[in-house]
Write a structure and sequence with these properties.
The structure is a single chain. By secondary structure, the chain is mainly alpha-helical. It is built from two helices and no strands. Helix 1 crosses helix 2.
Length: 65
């Protein structure tokens, strides 16, 4: 896989890697892992809410009044 970054993105990544004494690749891989993890959690939460909210819709409506 090839990751194409703009010059500004590559420079920012290079500076961050130098600050952390890590490779640019290591930081990019961590960013991908975090993105997948965060979006997977959000997708799971959305799925659970879509399934469970209708069951409690009436009670939630009453609480909102």
């Amino acid at each position: 896989m090839t990751l194409r970054l703009s010059d500004a993105e590559a420079d920012a990544l290079r500076r961050r890697a130098e600050q952390e004494s890590r490779s640019m690749q290591d930081i990019a891989r961590q960013a991908v892992r975090e993105y997948i993890e965060n979006h997977s959690r959000a997708d799971l939460l959305d799925q659970v809410l879509d399934q469970e909210l209708p069951r409690y819709a009436e009670a939630l409506e009453r609480l909102g009044q």
